[in-house]
Amino acid sequence: MNNELNAYLAAGQVALSNALFSGFATSDLTQHELIVYLFLTQWASQHDEAPELDTFAQSMKLAKNETYNVIASLIKKGAVQLVSRQDEAGRAVDQYDVTPLLAKLLTAPTAQPATVQALNAGRQIFNEIEVEFGRPLSPIEQQTISDWLNVDHYEPAVISLALREAVLNQAYSLRYMDRILINWERRHLTTAAQVQADLKRQKNGL
Description:
The protein has about 210 residues and is mostly helical. It is about 60% helix and about 5% strand.
């Protein structure tokens, strides 16, 4: 019995909020996404950097590409965030922050229509960019778009216009889109109507 107890204590424990379980039914997470989220939570409690994808996928009995897609979806849905920091040696280290999902579950017990509409518009932007780029977005790209929406507060329609400009110039790059968005922001073009009016003036040579 003592050996079993010692093994139990040596294995360590992960604290999980009951909000994860009580809020799961009304969240937009799938069962696979919840499982991966729980494993990411366990990993983050013991490590200071993101897991190696092959090993992490094996620990969940999932294929590597499936794990990659699920993590990308978690980022898209705002459940986790990919953050970068510098370690003691000055190296750039990536880590998955799992707190955004808890913040959403604890502060938004009931989604308002405007909030649902904004979430749907944000997801549409992810889909539009993936279609135009002709490939799935990487977790870092997913995080960049999430930052446009949630940190920079760019309107989804404005991001869509930036995507159109990038495609017209055959520049399938978020970096190119980011330069467009920053340029519009500096010129105080913050709504789709303002951007469209400015593009029309440029087209007419005014």
